[in-house]
Amino acid sequence: MTPVFTETITRIEFNETNCYLIKVQDQFVLIDTGWTKHRKEIEAKLEEAGCERGNLKLILLTHGDFDHTGNCAYFKNKFDCSVAMHYDDLGMVQLGDFLWNRNVGTLTRILFRIVIFIMRMKLRKEDRFTPDIFLEDGQDISDLGIDAKVIYIPGHSKGSIGILTKGGDLFCGDLLVNTDVPEKNKMISDAESYDASITKVKPLGIQTVYPGHGESFTMKRFLEANQEVE
Fold first, then answer.
1. Cβ neighbours of residue 90 closer than 8 Å, sequence gap 6 or more
2. How many CB atoms lie within 10 A of CB 37?
3. Nearest to residue 92, comparing CAs of 112, 119, 70, 64?
4. C-alpha–C-alpha distance, residues 76 and 93, integer Å
5. Residue closest to 4 by CA, chosen among 164, 139, 142, 206
6. What does the DSSP assignment read for 129-149?
7. Superfamily of domain 8-167
8. Taking the domains of the chain in order of start, what are their residue ranges?
9. Which of 175, 161, 177, 185 is closest to 216 using CA atoms?
């Protein structure tokens, strides 16, 4: 039987980074897992919402960056659940290298390395992992526990994806942000792919966008604020 998406969404936010816990009937799906340093706080929020071993069925990762994958290995083991993401960010989570498969020049790579070192942005060996499921563009994931499909939206990273529910909610990862106003992400590694991803999502009938950073917003508000209405 195809699960019914109930629109029950809990935003869990620490350090301006979001995880989203979605309740589907009596089970849960977690989109992204937050910073490692906020593990205990995020874990407490999950347990407060009713997550326990056996009812968190799936972790969906929008991309491989540390602030979205930091607690994935720990939660996978704690809750005995599967992990799904796009193949093109695999090296980030297997190797802990957040520049893996990113199209950046030598200077940008050096600057990224400095920032990574200063902010301690890394996956320790025990926090690295291999996903159970690799997701593809357009894939219907209702059989995984959520009435939604995968939208491939590279640009921020090569393996970035969005999760678009049948109700028109888009969990967009770092495609768009709303730390001040809804806007395009300035941290991109491939401008051509990023622009194509923005063009791709515009006609999809998206109602509400749930970004990796900041409050949710309507797609209409984003398009109007960024003069993207055609």
1. 64, 130, 131, 134, 159
2. 13
3. 64
4. 13
5. 142
6. ---SEE--TT-B-GGGTSSEE
7. Ribonuclease Z/Hydroxyacylglutathione hydrolase-like (3.60.15.10)
8. 8-167
9. 177
Tell me the residue length of the chain. 230
Burial of 200 (0-12, 13-18, 19+ CB in 10 A): middle
Q: With the C-alpha atoms ordered 101, 135, 214, 46, is the resulting torsion angle positive or negative?
A: negative
Report the side by side order of strands in the sheet with 56-60: 8-14, 17-24, 27-31, 56-60, 82-85, 133-134
The model carries a pTM of: 0.91
Per-residue confidence of the chain (230 residues) as pLDDT tens digits?
Answer: 444 445 699 999 998 999 999 999 889 999 999 999 999 999 999 999 999 999 999 999 999 999 999 999 999 999 999 999 999 999 999 998 888 777 765 555 555 665 555 455 678 899 999 999 999 999 999 999 999 999 999 999 999 999 999 999 999 999 999 998 999 998 888 999 999 999 999 999 999 999 999 999 999 999 998 876 44
